[in-house]
């Protein structure tokens, strides 16, 4: 990027006031976004908080069960010794058995924690910080930031001296961050599953993350009780907080000094980090990620060869030229003219021949004869119909008369 | 512009809180989406240059987003009021989105059309009214129906009506003889006749004690029988009236003693100061 984007620092008391205009963005925010690194690092780092647990090693094995061996018409699984109870003779020990021990019972010496290369962890953190400065990513993660004046949100150091929760709340309200807090409050749900009996009763969303710098800052206590809000020192930025669930784009509120410290923390593209010894920010593979633009740019299109058209060797289905006129025309372009000429010739020929005339005459004559017969038949049928009608009329009138006389 | 590609990759491949996946299609829940579908072209997050139409209180607004304001979510969307005239609104869209991609312009016009049609429909429904569809709740319906039946049975309508009619008869609402149900009539008549016989028996026993008190207003059927010297003209009327009273008595007694069949049960002898206790009682029977 040629020009460095600029960021305003807002006054803590008044969201419309800007105390410092146009501070350059720390280089971290221009790190390439690498969700793959973040995902990998997150899954491994998330395991580091686990506490060892195990299944009771004796579970399911507290029997003197022995297999009955062959010849007893039962499966060879070890069976509980003894008698006098239902349990005797039942299968034991196997993972498939009822009351048997599980297969591969969990041991305490399971490898609970994962180590991740420092560089990878640092890259992940840097990417996560960069993602907090991209509005669409923060929105996509689900934060309600439509009323926030600026992302990344940088506020003067005054908030570090907040002691009262009311101050903290009012501050959040002023900067449009309260909507996010409200989201957290309204979506607090009792957890499904047994965990609720093990100290994790509620499932609570993540709200804004407030990042400060001075160690004596009292704002931790002020923001502690606001649901969803987390407070962290810049020097101890945690990937698990910056990208909760491995998802980039946490809504972060920076104090001015914390923001300024980022350059020292992560370094820039000009110098490596001071604090993270020898750490150099990840460089992108391509500086301009807009591939479509690149491909369609003049510089590229100039050099590019014309697009290849697919060459059709032959039809998918073979057409018979003797039957299919188009196929014939393709093979023999003159065939069309030949066909036309032949047809014309036939027509010309047939017009004047005697035979044709004779046939015509015959046709005419036969047609006439047919018509005559048809006509006479017609007349006959008509007469017959008429006769029938007369009879009917007479008959019914007679009937009527007879009825009347009666 | 620069970041759009990256954003789309992250959102599409990864997780987007606005994306809704169905078997055939992906939808976008974002309020600013023009089409409502989840695709790169219509994603309001993955396009730094974007426009939508939104409707507020019957008016259509064009919301425009440009790359310059990308970092300021509060000022991101520019809200432009569109003309109420459809064609003018289309022209406005053309003007505001000049040189934008055809896709964006076309989709915005489509959305405008759809919203306007919706508004027309809303107005029509408000004016004409519409049939509101109410779901039939099977369980509730079944329950109510059964309860109605039970209530009907519990109400004892026939008995209540009978009571009401008898009360009215007593109160003298009906002046003349009414057409009774023959069965009820005969039943009442039959019982009345029995009653008469009873009364006559009682009277024979206590003939000496008869005394006409000052309560001449009380009509005594026995009196009528003795007074045969009265005019013949009134005979029929009197007979009618007699009959009426008798039936009335019967109905009243029926009312009092529904289950008691034996009429000759001993009555409670109340101690009055006067000697003519029996007579009074008789008279009280008749008086209503």
TrEMBL record, chain A:
Keywords: Ribonucleoprotein, Ribosomal protein. The keyword Ribosomal protein applies. One of its GO terms (cellular component) is ribonucleoprotein complex. InterPro entries: Ribos_uL4_C_dom (IPR025755), Ribosomal_uL4 (IPR002136), Ribosomal_uL4_euk/arch (IPR045240). The keyword Ribosomal protein applies. It holds the Pfam family Ribosomal_L4. Signal peptide: none annotated. One of its GO terms (molecular function) is structural constituent of ribosome. Residues 278-351 form the Large ribosomal subunit protein uL4 C-terminal domain. GO terms for biological process: translation. Belongs to the universal ribosomal protein uL4 family. This is Large ribosomal subunit protein uL4. The lineage of its organism: Eukaryota, Sar, Alveolata, Ciliophora, Intramacronucleata.
Automatic annotation (TrEMBL), chain B:
Signal peptide: none annotated. It comes from the Eukaryota. GO terms for biological process: maturation of 5.8S rRNA; maturation of LSU-rRNA. Keywords: Nucleus. It is found in: Nucleus. Residues 6-118 form the Ribosomal eL28/Mak16 domain. One of its GO terms (cellular component) is preribosome, large subunit precursor. Residues 194-238 have a biased composition (Acidic residues). InterPro entries: Mak16, Ribosomal_eL28/Mak16. Residues 251-260, 279-288 have a biased composition (Basic and acidic residues). It holds the Pfam family Mak16. Residues 190-288 are annotated as: Disordered. Belongs to the MAK16 family. This is Protein MAK16 homolog. It comes from Paramecium primaurelia.
């Amino acid at each position: 990027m040629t020009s460095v984007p600029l960021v305003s620092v807002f006054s803590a008391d008044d969201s419309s006031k800007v105390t410092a205009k146009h501070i350059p963005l720390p280089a971290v925010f221009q790190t390439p976004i690498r969700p793959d690194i973040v995902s990998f690092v997150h899954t491994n780092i998330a395991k580091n908080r686990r506490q060892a647990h195990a299944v009771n090693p004796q579970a399911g094995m507290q029997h003197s069960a022995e297999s009955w061996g062959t010849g007893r018409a039962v499966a060879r699984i070890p069976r509980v010794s003894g008698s006098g109870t239902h349990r005797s003779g039942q299968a034991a020990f196997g993972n498939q058995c009822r009351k048997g021990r599980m297969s591969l019972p969990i041991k305490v010496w399971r490898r609970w924690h994962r180590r991740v290369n420092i560089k990878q962890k640092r890259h992940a953190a840097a990417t996560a910080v960069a993602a907090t400065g991209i509005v669409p990513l923060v929105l996509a993660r689900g934060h309600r930031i439509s009323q926030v004046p600026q992302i990344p949100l940088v506020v003067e150091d005054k908030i570090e001296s907040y002691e009262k929760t009311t101050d903290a709340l009012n501050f959040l309200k002023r900067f449009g961050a309260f909507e996010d807090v409200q989201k957290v409050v309204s979506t607090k749900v009792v957890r499904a599953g047994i965990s609720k009996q093990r100290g994790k009763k509620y499932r609570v969303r993540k709200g804004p993350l407030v990042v400060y710098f001075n160690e004596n800052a009292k704002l931790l206590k002020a923001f502690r009780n606001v649901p969803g809000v987390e407070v962290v020192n810049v020097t101890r930025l945690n990937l698990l907080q910056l990208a909760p669930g491995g998802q980039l784009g946490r809504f972060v509120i920076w104090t001015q000094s914390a923001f300024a410290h980022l350059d020292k923390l992560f370094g820039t593209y000009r110098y490596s980090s001071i604090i993270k010894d020898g750490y150099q920010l990840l460089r992108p593979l391509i500086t301009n990620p807009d591939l479509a633009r690149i491909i369609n740019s003049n510089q590229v299109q100039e050099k590019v060869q014309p697009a290849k058209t697919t060459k059709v060797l032959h039809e998918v289905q073979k057409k018979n030229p003797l039957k299919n006129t188009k196929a014939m025309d393709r093979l023999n372009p003159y065939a069309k003219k030949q066909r036309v000429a032949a047809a014309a010739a036939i027509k010309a020929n047939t017009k004047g021949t005697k035979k044709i005339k004779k046939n015509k005459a015959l046709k005419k004559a036969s047609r006439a004869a047919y018509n005559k017969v048809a006509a006479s038949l017609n007349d006959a049928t008509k007469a017959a119909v008429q006769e029938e009608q007369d009879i009917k009329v007479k008959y019914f009138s007679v009937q009527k008369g007879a009825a009347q006389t009666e | 512009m620069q970041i759009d590609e990256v954003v789309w990759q992250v959102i599409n491949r990864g997780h987007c809180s606005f994306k809704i996946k169905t078997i055939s299609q992906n939808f976008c829940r974002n309020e600013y989406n023009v089409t409502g579908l989840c695709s790169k072209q219509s994603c309001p997050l993955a396009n730094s240059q974007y426009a939508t139409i939104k409707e507020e209180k019957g008016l259509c607004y064009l919301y425009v987003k440009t790359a310059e304001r990308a970092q300021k979510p509060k000022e991101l969307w520019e809200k432009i009021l569109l003309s109420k005239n459809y064609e003018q609104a289309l022209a406005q869209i053309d003007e505001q989105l000049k040189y934008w991609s055809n896709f964006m312009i076309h989709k915005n016009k489509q959305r405008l059309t759809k919203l306007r049609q919706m508004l027309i429909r809303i107005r029509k429904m408000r004016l004409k009214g519409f049939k509101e569809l109410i779901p039939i709740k099977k369980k509730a319906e079944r329950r109510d129906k059964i309860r109605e039946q039970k209530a009907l049975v519990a109400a004892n309508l026939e008995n209540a009506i009978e009571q009401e009619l008898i009360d009215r008869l007593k109160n003298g609402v009906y002046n003349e003889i009414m057409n009774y149900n023959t069965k009820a009539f005969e039943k009442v008549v039959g019982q009345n006749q029995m009653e008469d016989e009873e009364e006559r028996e009682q009277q024979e026993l206590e003939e000496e004690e008869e005394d006409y008190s000052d309560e001449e207003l009380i009509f005594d059927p026995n009196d009528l029988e003795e007074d045969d010297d009265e005019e013949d003209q009134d005979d029929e009327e009197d007979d009618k009236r007699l009959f009426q009273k008798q039936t009335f008595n019967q109905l009243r007694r029926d009312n009092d003693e529904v289950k008691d069949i034996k009429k000759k049960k001993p009555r409670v002898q109340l101690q009055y100061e006067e000697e003519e206790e029996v007579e009074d009682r008789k008279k009280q029977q008749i008086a209503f």
